[in-house]
Amino acid sequence: MRPGGRPALTASRICGVAAANTAKALLAKAQSIEPAVSQPPLRAIIENLGVADGDYLQAVADSLKGQFKGVIVLGGVNNAAVALVASVSPEFTAKVQAGKIIQSIAPIVGGKGGGKPDNARGGGKDTAKLDEALAKARTLVAGV
Predict the structure, then answer these.
(1) What is the Cα–Cα distance from 53 to 70, expressed in whole angstroms?
(2) What pLDDT is recorded for position 7?
(3) 136: CATH
(4) Which of 18, 53, 85, 98 supports an S-S bond with 57, CB 3.0-4.6 Å?
(5) Contacts of 50 (CB under 8 A, 6+ apart)
(6) Is residue 114 part of a domain?
(7) How far apart are CA 105 and CA 120, in angstroms?
(8) Domain-located, residue 122
(9) What is the pTM of this model?
């Protein structure tokens, strides 16, 4: 504890606050995009977060889960490696599964991954192809 009864700023606490702030920005961006058709497609947040590891991406996805209903696919690069996280709201797992998204896009970055229908992680070594992998995720979600 710091003076005044405030908790000390640990690395995990700072990461959690940063993840929550990133989640707020992504949510605001997603909500500002209005669908152009009367029956909108499945909502998705698919973003390259730049320098980020898998734990940070997972923290951002976890922060979004209670506020966003749809598909979340996040990518980042840290220590010359690509990290990928996918999350699908439970009400949409009959249409699209997080594990299948990651299994489809991880090979693009020279890696692998998997998980459950509602949450999955993966990674690879080809950092130059992260945007291509996220574009494939957009195509997969758009086809639902």
Answers:
(1) 22
(2) 52
(3) 3.10.310.40
(4) 85
(5) 76, 77
(6) yes
(7) 12
(8) yes
(9) 0.80
Q: How far is CA 7 from the centre of its chain?
A: 28
**Residue 2 forms part of a structural domain:** no
In a domain, 37, yes or no: no
- Phi first, then psi, for residue 48 (nearest 5°) are -90, 115
Q: What is the mean pLDDT of the chain?
A: 85
Contact (Cβ atoms closer than 8 angstroms) between residue 61 and residue 74: yes
User: Domain limits at 54?
Assistant: 11-32+43-142
pLDDT tens for 78-102 read 999 999 999 999 999 999 999 999 9
CB-CB contact of 144 with 41 (8 Å): yes
pLDDT digits (tens, 9 = 90+) for 30-45: 766 555 443 456 889 9
Q: DSSP secondary-structure letter at 90?
A: G
What residue type is assigned to position 86 of the chain?
A
Reported as a single tens digit per residue, the pLDDT across 20-29 is 888 788 877 7
109 CA to centre of own chain = 16
Asked whether the beta carbons of 56 and 73 are under 8 A apart, the reply is no
Tally the domains of the chain: 1
